[in-house]
Structures are given as C-alpha cells and as structure tokens.
C-alpha cells in the first residue's frame, strides 16, 4: 500500500484545518496547524501530495478552499500570495484590506474605511464596502450585517432577505435559520417564512431542540433523550442512551447507536470514535478503518489521513 509518513516531534500538537484538490486527480493538499506545547507557539503548514501518495512539497501557510481564475489563496505572512494548479506561487497586489479569508464563488471579502464589501481576483470592488460584517458567498448568497442587523445579499449586492434579524445561521437544504425578537425560526432563500420565529433555540445538541428532515428540508422536533441532527447523504445522526448511531429518513436505526462520537457522512464515509480512538464507517455500518487512531480525515473516496503517536499517515483506502 502506497503511504506517506510524516513524523512530528513529541511536543508538537497537530490540528487539521482543511484539505482539497489543487489539480484534479494529480495534486492534493492538506492544511495543518502545528502547535509547540513547550514554547506555546504555532505555525501553519501545507503538505502537497499526489494520487500515488507521493510527497510533492511543503509550504509555509495554509491554502484556501475555493478557486478563482485557477488560483487559490495562500494564507501566510504575505497576504498577496496565491498558488496555481501546478503548485506555483503567484503574487497579486490588492488595493484593499484582506483578512485570512479566501475566494468563494469568485469573490473575496475586503475592508475599506472600516466597512466590508467584495472584490474579484483583479482587485476590482464588485460589491460596495458598506456592511458592518460579511460572510463568504455560498450558493450565490452571503449573510451580511448592515446597520446592526443581519440579512442576505446576492452577488449584485441586492438584499434577498432584508437586514432585520438579530442573527442568521448558514443555509442548510435551501432554508436559513433566523432570529427575530430573541426567537428562532426558518425562512427560504427569498425570505418567505417557513417556520415562524417562536423557538428559543435551534440545532443545539446540548439542549433539546434540534433540526430534522422534512418536505421543507428542515423542521424542529423536541426530544428528551434522542438527539437528532441534519440529514447528510440520506442519514442523520441519532443519540440513544448517550451513544450515537444513524437513522434513515423513515426514522429506522440503520447503524447501531454504540459510538461515543460520530461525524456526519461525507463521501459515503463517517468518522466515529469509540473508547477514545477514531475509526471509519461506511453507510452500512461496516468498519472501514479500525478504531486505532487519534484523528482521521477523509480527503476523498480513495485517500484518507490518519494520525497515531505523532505520526501522520496519508494512504489509500
């Protein structure tokens, strides 16, 4: 089995930031945060590798997750650094202030005179900097804060959901959770009310109010013990007697609730934890990777990243 092995010093703690594809089926990357517990310092590193799990290069900083004109943002000490699909570094000078964020759907958040807007890869301001705060674009929409209230704009800067809410959560299955007068409900992408704002909280696993699948995409259920999450790839996590498993949309328990922790299914796989160790499940509940690892990351359906005893292993499934 082809495998990349990276050993870390025993004083180094590692967190995965994200991963992605630089060049389809040729170059992959993982972003890491390495913390030195002895000196209380941390650095960001990016590892590039190919489908045969051969190491290509290491970069200082982390790579963004969204392409714009064939470039990804390289977040390091130089805010004008980008990387192309062949792993070459490209410099672009922006006339606006940039934070750590990346391009999303061709636009990046910028700051002008303490207000935020959006610019394109050429540095042209596409949406005027008039907002108190902006989230990144997703599905052609961005959550913004304007005059102290939250709303949603399109890529022309027009409000599709007026800025009248105290808080807005990200879109899930074409609806968005909104808070009005300290109560939570749901509206669709055009601002039409799906569920009236009358609940004290939503999607909080420490409480009893959670989100569950319905014809609208989401609705709310109250449970005393069985905590349910959102559907991902046809399955939703369920907590029964303080253990986690998965149900289908008919509320059938399809994966036994016996795990201490589980993550949502992605690419047909779910990371689970049992007795303090992580393993990997498929949608039939079959164990794909034994419960031996401190951390697991699924890059795609072929490649996974494993961490055990301060060693990073990149290998094919």
UniProtKB/TrEMBL annotation:
Do you know which SUPFAM superfamilies this protein is assigned to? Cell wall binding repeat
Pfam (any one): WG_beta_rep
The protein's name is WG repeat-containing protein
Task: Look up and give the organism this protein is from.
Answer: Campylobacter coli
Instruction: Identify the taxonomic lineage of the organism of origin.
Output: Bacteria, Pseudomonadati, Campylobacterota, Epsilonproteobacteria, Campylobacterales
């Amino acid at each position: 089995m082809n495998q990349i092995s990276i050993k870390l010093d025993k004083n180094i703690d590692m967190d995965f930031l994200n991963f992605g594809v630089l060049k389809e089926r040729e170059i992959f990357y993982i972003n890491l945060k390495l913390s030195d517990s002895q000196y209380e310092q941390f650095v960001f590193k990016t590892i590039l590798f190919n489908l045969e799990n051969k190491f290509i290069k290491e970069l200082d900083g982390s790579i963004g997750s969204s392409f714009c004109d064939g470039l990804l943002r390289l977040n390091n000490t130089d805010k004008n650094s980008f990387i192309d699909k062949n792993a070459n570094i490209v410099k672009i000078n922006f006339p606006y202030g940039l934070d750590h964020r990346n391009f999303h759907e061709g636009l990046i958040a910028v700051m002008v005179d303490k207000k935020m807007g959006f610019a394109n890869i050429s540095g042209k301001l596409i949406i005027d900097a008039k907002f108190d705060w902006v989230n990144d674009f997703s599905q052609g929409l961005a959550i913004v804060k304007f005059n102290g209230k939250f709303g949603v704009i399109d890529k022309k800067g027009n409000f599709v959901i007026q800025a009248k809410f105290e808080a807005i959560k990200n879109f899930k299955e074409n609806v968005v959770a909104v808070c009005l007068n300290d109560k939570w409900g749901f509206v669709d992408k055009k601002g039409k009310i799906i569920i009236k704002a009358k609940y004290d909280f939503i999607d909080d696993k420490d409480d009893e109010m959670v989100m569950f699948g319905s014809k609208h995409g989401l609705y709310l259920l109250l449970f005393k013990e069985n905590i349910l999450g959102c559907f991902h790839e046809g399955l939703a996590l369920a907590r029964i007697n303080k253990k986690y498993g998965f149900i289908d949309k008919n509320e059938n328990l399809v994966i036994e609730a016996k795990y201490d922790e589980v993550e949502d299914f992605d690419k047909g796989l779910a990371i689970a934890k049992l007795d303090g160790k992580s393993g990997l499940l498929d949608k039939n509940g079959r164990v794909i990777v034994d419960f031996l690892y401190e951390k697991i990351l699924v890059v795609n359906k072929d490649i996974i990243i494993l961490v055990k005893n301060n060693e990073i292993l990149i290998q094919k499934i």
